[in-house]
Fold this sequence. Notes:
This protein is mainly β. It has strands at residues 10-12, 20-26, 29-34, 44-46, 49-54, 57-62, 80-83, 92-95, 99-103, 109-115, 121-128, 135-138, 141-144, 152-157, 163-167, 188-191, 196-200, 213-219, 225-232, 250-255, 259-264, 270-274, 280-284, 295-301, 306-311, 316-321. The protein is globular, with a radius of gyration of 21 Å.
Amino acid sequence: MSSEHWNGLRKIILTLGIAWMACLVTPGRADVWTETSGSDFAAGTLYNVDIQSSPGDITLYPYVLPHPYQNGWQTEAGDQTITITGDEGHGVVAANGAYLYVKALDAAGNIHKVRTSDGVSEGVIASSSAPTRTMAYYNGYIYNGYTDNGFRLQRFNVSNGQADFVDVSDGLINPDTAQVSGTCSTLLITTDGRYFYNLAYRISGTGTDYDGFTLKVFDPENNWSLVRKVTCQPRADSYNPATFNSSFPTKGIFADGYFVYAVSSINTHMQRIDVVTGKDSGRYTPGDQSAAGTYGGGQLDTVNNKIWLGSSTTAAAYWWAGPR
């Protein structure tokens, strides 16, 4: 098979006990499946390929879904910074390549357009009347983490600042309850440049326990349809129980196409969640540990392959090299 994206149905005929096969689903990445018995290729889902088998053949239906990067983004490289000037806060950051769009965390106020080259604001493009904690740039709009009824998401046109809403029929989940619950200005949203992610730091939505994360994945190119909903319950024995619960209050998120990252509002840690399975993929302090507690949420800049994060307590915005 070629290394290009699959554009339609491909069929592989298995004959005479083929032991293995490799399929290039995305450019430069090989996914290898190994057959050791006749049941290995039973119907099911493997990564972003749905496998359906019948006697004598196997059919692979390629989905254009979030697909694993080998290593995620490069936390070991440490963070880089730019100093932002002329704005009114940048705890909330969206990115489109040439610019950051920033506003104060958990506060109503102006959204500034900031050059990534030198951190200087070119002025206000819109104003959020809701005290939001996340934003995301996508196809000419800033999507603001605010819903007035649970079933539509606010956005601003970056060209003229005009505000409107997009319908999300399956509903947006409140981060504190994991339920669709009417007006909410603290939605945890982000995008990897293709899909949108909506996170809650609870599963049950009841009581005071932090019992895990709930993640919804939406497709903005298909009427904001729900791609999947998964839950994540981090392994309790992986962490110090005196310090961590299963999940934690979250002040921001970002995604790299493989993982969603929840940024803690109570310590310096982030939780990494597999966007396909919901698997707990690690909890750690990234980058410069002395600055880690200042990070807000952010966005993957798909043009320059950088992860950008805001800060509510310093004059800096932070970036790392993106996924390899």
